[in-house]
Amino acid sequence: MAERIHSLQDIIGQYDVVLCDVWGVVHNGIDPFPLACEALLAARRSGVTVVLITNSPRPSAGVVSQFKAIGVGEETYDRIVTSGDVTRELIASQGPKKVFLLGPERDLPLLEGLDVTRVDSEDAEIILCSGLFRDEEENPEDYRDMLAALQARNLQMICANPDLVVERGTKMIYCAGSLAALYRELGGETLIAGKPFSPIYDACLAKAEVMRGAFSRDRVLAIGDGMPTDVRGAINQDLDLLYISGGIHAGEYVRDGATDEAALSAFLTRNAAAPKWWMPKLA
């Protein structure tokens, strides 16, 4: 069983770099978590480089704007790397293409400045999936017929956000990863940049190295709450993990507002996950 800690300061002296998840750890899409922000600021003041690693389909500039709107201060972090940033690199590597954007209009910055043409699904050569068109109202099954038609043409899907679901305030919202999962189920090919896959971790560690110089990977701490993304990514990258148990999986083991440690241990075992540390909320 992972060791329970009560403050990030209990362990931060063992690390030079922190790769911290955003949604569910630093904010919930509407409100910031002040104690988490204070913990990351304290880590930075102690000399640790804090890189926020997020499966947001937006380029990092869009996340900075969101932070300003909801009250996450710039002093909380040194750098941000988004799935959107890495997705743009994947799109650019494809060369000139006709792209169908499967996602809301707010995600158009993913295509800005790239040598691509946005088209309707019927004319597309490749799919860029950033989410559901109306994620407050729809679910992946609403897209089954559309995805089946796209798969029949053997179009590759680039998924800008591997997350299946996320909590927006108190509501659970489906993300692009849920559409990518359905597309794979239908036989479609997907290309994914965000957590738990290597490209986003490579980008984060490269930014940290530019800032502070060389460091050992055993001096890197990953922080997150999502089992298929944050946890699996840390395992794949062989990084120490601080698991935030009060996040998206809390319903598996929180009883009457308190963590049932036996249930938490069983949950981690079922998922073949062995984080080094855990705490309910980052503080």
UniProtKB/TrEMBL annotation:
One of its GO terms (molecular function) is phosphatase activity. One of its GO terms (cellular component) is cytoplasm. Gene3D superfamilies: HAD superfamily/HAD-like. The keyword Hydrolase applies. SUPFAM superfamilies: HAD-like (SSF56784). Keywords: Hydrolase. NCBIfam families: HAD-SF-IIA, HAD-SF-IIA-hyp4. PANTHER family: 4-NITROPHENYLPHOSPHATASE-RELATED, OS08G0542600 PROTEIN. This is TIGR01459 family HAD-type hydrolase. It comes from Metarhizobium album.
